[in-house]
Amino acid sequence: MRPSGLSEFVGQEHLLGPGKLLNQMIAAHTLHSMVLWGPPGSGKTTLAHLLAHESEANFISFSAVICGVAELRDAAEAARRELALGGRPTVLFIDEIHRWNRAQQDACLPHVESGLLTLIGATTENPSFEIIAPLLSRARVLVLYPLSDGDIAALVRRALEDPERGLGHLQLKLADEAMSELIRLANGDARQALSTLEVAAGLAHQAGRNLLGPDDVREASQHKPLLYDRAGEEHYNVISAFIKSMRGSDPDAALYWMMRMVEAGEEPLFIARRMVIFAAEDVGNADPRALQVAIAVKEAVDFVGMPEGAIPLAQGVTYLASAPKSNASYTAMRAAREDAKRHGALAVPLHLRNAPTPLMRSQGYGESYRYPHDYEAALVEQNYMPDILKDRLYYAPTDRGYESRLREFLDKARSRKRGTPRRSEHSGGEPPDRNR
Known about the structure:
Rossmann fold, elongated
C-alpha cells in the first residue's frame, strides 16, 4: 500500500500542504538534504521515496543498521556516474541514521558538502543528540508527527477497497467498533494499522466471514509494546512528564506516567531514585517526611521486586504529588554553591575553629565563641559566616506546609541574632566539647 505518488500520501500536511516547505521544493525541483524525524509508521521512508521520484533523482537506499562506509563509497561512485552520464542528481536515503557512529557520519559529510549526494536521513531519535553538528548544519530537520485518527481510518479504508495492492479482492467490511479498536491500537502508526488489518482480515477470511469485528482486531494485534526507548528521547520525555506532574501536584497524571514506564519495562529502582531526588528538591521542608517516604519506597521496591513493587511505587508517587511543595532548600544549596565556587576557600573565622590544644588556643582559636545553649531560646548574636559573606542569606522558607514553622522560627532567630542576647537562666553549664 505504499503510495505511488505524493497525491496518495496521507498526513503531514504541515510539510506537504499548499505553500509548505516540501511542496515548494518539489515545485522548484530543488531538493535539499534533510533529516526526517518522527515516530515509527509516520511515513518517513515513503516520503523519501516520493521526494526522490518527484525530483527525478537517482535514488539509493540503505539501512544504517547493516550498511557502513563501504556502502557509502559505492553510493558516491554511483552518484558520480549518474552525473557524468546524464547530469542526474542522486538522493541517498539512510534509514535509522542515528545508528551510524561519528566516524561513519564524518565519512558522509564531504559528499553532502560537495553536493554529490542529497542526503535524506530518517530517525526516530532526536537528531540533536544522535547526529554530528557539521552534518546536521547542512541538513534541514523536518519533524513528522503520528498520524491522526482520520489519517489512519483513510489508510485502512483504502487498503480494504484496493483490489490490486490491498484487500479489495476479499470484499471484506470493517465494523465501526473494529475501526475504532484498530485506530486505538495503531496509536498513529500506519504500518501497525495495516499490519494488524492484514492479520485480522486473514482470521476473518479463514473463518468464512466477510465482516471484521473488534475481536478480530484485538486477536491480530495481541500485545503491542509501548513506545519507550530506555536509551532514547522518549525515555527522557516520559520521565520529564512524570517529574513535572508530581511537581504540579497532579497525582493522577504522575501515576499514568509512572505506569507508562513500568509497563514499558523501565528499571523500577530508576523511578524510585528519581522520587528520592524529587522529595528533597521539590517537596523539601514543606513536608520533611516526603524524603523518608521516598527512601522507604526505594527499599520496598528493592526488597519486593516486580511486579508487586509497583504498589509501593504508586503509594510514594501519590504521596509526593499530594504533598505541599517547596524548593527553598534546593535554591539555597545552589546559591551557597555559587558563593563557594566564586570566593574559593575562605578562612574559617577564629571563633568558630576547634581548639583542642594550648597552641591553638594561644592563636585565638575558639576565642569569643558563644555557646547558644547558654542563652535564651538557644539564640545568640554571633556570625557563623566568613566575614565577606557575613550578611548573606541563602535559605528563604516558604509559608507552605511544615516549612511555615521553620520560617517562623528562623525569622525569630535572625532577628534575635541582630539584637543583644540575654544569657539563659536555665543554662546547664558549659560542656567540655563546646568548642568542637
